[in-house]
Design a protein that fits this description.
With 311 residues, the chain is an all-alpha fold. The chain has helices at 2-30, 35-47, 49-60, 64-89, 96-118, 125-153, 168-197, 202-213, 216-227, 231-256, 266-286, 293-310, and strands at 92-93, 122-123, 259-260, 290-291.
Amino acid sequence: MDYILLIVSLALIIIGAMMLTDGSVAIAQRFRVPEFVVGLTIVAVGTSMPELTVSMLAALNGIGEMAIGNVIGSNIFNIFAILGICSVFVPVVFTKSNIRRDIPICIMATLALLGVTATGEEISRWEGIALLLGYVCMLIYTFRAEKSEAANAAATADEPQSKMALWRIPLWILLGLGGLIYGGQLCVDSASNIARSLGVSEATIAITLVAGGTSLPELASSLVSLFKGRTSLALGNVLGSSIANILLILGTCSVVTPLSMGNVTIFDIYVAVGATAAVMLSALIIGSDKITRFEGLCFIACYAAYVYTLL
């Protein structure tokens, strides 16, 4: 039965990703909102709902280290695994605004995580409020910058209008998010049962399936976006999810209740910082404004090496 549920969950994830991508692109075309902004907000926050659910429940149950560990693990998976897998299929190309603004914002968000965790053994409510304010400021700044760039580009090119009916856009987005979130949870549960039946340890399940499983929506929506030729939407999803995980999710959870670090080590946070720095390094030096297939394989190898250190 678990094998059947696993197949059903993967189908839900794929269909949900396609519906979410189509609905998000329709918003960008109809309201002339830059695709990167849509990826950074609607898609990124929507696909981060599994992380928010897991982290909030963990925080309410007094397991702060699970909330923090889930965010850190998801961010490392987002960059090393998702960007790595995506670039193996289709090299991920960066725009100038990605290099000048978006990746540095992601790095600053990760450094903010390092800052609030290095000052003590917990993330306090005041630190949570600071993280939330940082997220609001990031959205305002990014939206204004993208709106200005879109206005300048409008003089030279006409953006196609969406052919999707207006009433279908929110329906497609909600159904797509529902399929991603429910399918991701179903996939984690069924895969966990299969792993246990095969004698795999609980620690291995937690490291590989839970952290990676809550990021399945990001992986699915990013791959579908790439295959549809929407690179900016895929990149916005990954960077936006990583930023939202730290500033929005950890900020919200720590405002509700202070989060204890527990067994989360500074090494894990350093790996998250290194992952975002690797993206900037790839954009500026190694891949010449893109993540090549070889670099994608290196990213995947980095994630595998990190998981191996935890076993």
